[in-house]
């Protein structure tokens, strides 16, 4: 989805720029969750879904 929105932002569609920002934030949030979950799972022995 990031590449799809990037295409539209390059050709000048404002909605593509907003979508690009949204998907960057969602991807960053997902990566932060994965990092935190792996750290908690390995250090405390929890079983969070990764």
Structural class: mainly alpha
Which descriptor suits the 3D outline? Answer: rod-shaped
User: Kindly state the mean pLDDT as a whole number?
Assistant: 93
Task: Characterize the main sheet.
Answer: none
Which regions are unreliable across 5 or more consecutive residues at pLDDT < 50? Answer: none
Task: Break the fold down into its secondary structure elements and pairings.
Elements lengths: L1 H9 L3 H31 L6
Helix pairs in contact: 1-2
Task: Describe the protein in words.
With 50 residues, the chain is an all-alpha fold. The protein is built from two helices and no strands. Helix 1 packs antiparallel against helix 2 (14-44). The two termini are 21 Å apart.
Brief rundown of the structure:
This protein is mainly alpha-helical. Helices cover 80% and strands 0% of the residues. Helix 1 runs antiparallel to helix 2.
